[in-house]
Structure formats: structure tokens, C-alpha cells
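I am writing to request your help with a piece of structural work I have in hand. Thank you for your consideration; the sequence and its C-alpha cells are set out here:
=====
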Amino acid sequence: MASVTSTQTSAGHPSTGGGQRRSRRSWGSTVAGVIVLCVMLFPLYWMLNTALQPESGLLKVDPVPGSLDLSGFSKAITDQGGHLLTSLVVSLGAVVICLAIAAPAAYGLARFGLRGSKTIVFGTLITQMVPGIVIANALYNSYVDLGLVNSYFGLMLADASLGIPFSIVLMRSFMVSIPGEVIEAAQMDGAGPVRTFVAVVLPMSRNSLITSGLFAFLFSWSDFMFALTLNTTDEVKPVTLGIYQYIGAHVGDWGSVMAASVLSAIPAAILLVLAQKYIAAGITGGSVK
């Protein structure tokens, strides 16, 4: 009996030790993750901290604000509110254009058995490797001839080009995984190609559509190169260009500059929080058939 108990005890030690090691590794991973997160979020915290102390110089900001001074935000809203609205309009328009082009293109590449479809997909990836300044300079000459310089639609179209390649690749990988029986059933019920695409494929591709639209919005919202190159007046000035010029004109008023930066980060942060589950499903959905 004693030998049996000894055997059970000795057999149980490795399991206990393994559980302790896993627990230590889990705690170590958690601590490392928290440290990395703090390092990444510190610039955002310092930006908000500086915005709440508008009267302090950039080098005299307290680590923790003693009182909340929102005068920097009120000044930033007064000076940059119109530019924020411009960025919102341009970004939403870019999302509509991007999805209107990328969704049918992805469906065609995924389902129509086009010759050279893999080459086309590879080519869309290559376009993302071209430097933005090269594209902006080429677009400017074309925009002058087409009369699209200093126009909302021109900037929407340029910003949409940033998200179209990514959206095509993402949605194509998702649409390839849609069971062919579903599409065949819709066609047997009398649905044509367009109706099948609109009524069946798009609803089933909701996650990839939301993910593509979100990234298209973020690409457009953060764009600076097209905003600087394709606008020669103040008629269409996104917030990225507004903050750039704001720093040059108010280099001593860092509180207002940081407040404008905080305001410009809020829409993107809200969208990322609201759409995080769709992003995870949209990016991984096409990897499992």
C-alpha cells in the first residue's frame, strides 16, 4: 500500500511541476504584454496630457495634469473643426468608391475562373509597393487635365486607390471560401449573376466588407501625401494637412496642436473598437475553407 501511495505521489509531482511552469510562463507573458502595451500607449497618453495643459511649454508638462484645462480643445475645434469634417466626408466617400470597385472585382476573380486571375491578384499586391509620392506626382498631371485638382471627388478617388488593392485581395480570399452550392442554389431559383452577387454573396461576405471598408477609411483618414499634392488651395483641406500647417503657424502652442491630434485620433479609435470582432472574422475568414 505504501509503495502504491509512493508511486502515485511520485507520478503526481511532474504534473504539478508542469502546471506551475505553465502558470509562471502565463504570468511572464502577461507582464511582458502589459509592458509592451504601456510603451505603445505612452505617446498617446503624453499627447492627451499635453493637450490638457495648454499653457505649459512642451518641455514643462507635468507627468500628471493637476487640473483639466480644456481651452486647448476648444481652440482646436474652432481652428480644425472644418478640416475634421472635410476628412470625414472624404474618407466616407473613399470607402464607398473603394467597396464599389473592389467587391465586384474580388467576386469576378474568385468565381468566374478568369485566365490569369492569380497574376492579377499578384499585380494588385505589387501596386502597394509603389511609393506614394510617385503615384501622387503622376496623379497631379492627370488631375490637372481632368479638372479634379482641389475637389472633394478627386481626393476621394485618390484616397480610395490606397484601399482598393488590399480590399480586392481580402474579399477575394473570403469569397473563394463561399460554398459553390449556395451560389448554384440561387441561380437555380432564377437569380442572375448580379442578383446573386448582391443578394447572396455580399451578405455572406459582411465581415470582409466591414474589414475592407474600415481599412479604406483608415487609409484615407491618415492620408497626407495626396492631400498635400492634389490641393493647391484651402478649399479641400483634410485634418492631416490642417495639423501640418497648424504646427508651422502655432509651434509655440503645443497644447492646441496636441488637442487637434487627439481629436483627429478619436474617430479611428472608435471605429476600431466597434469593428474589432468583424476585423478578426474578416481577416481570418478566408483562411479556412
Remarks:
- Residues 1-13 have pLDDT under 50 and may be disordered.
- The chain has twelve helices and no strands.
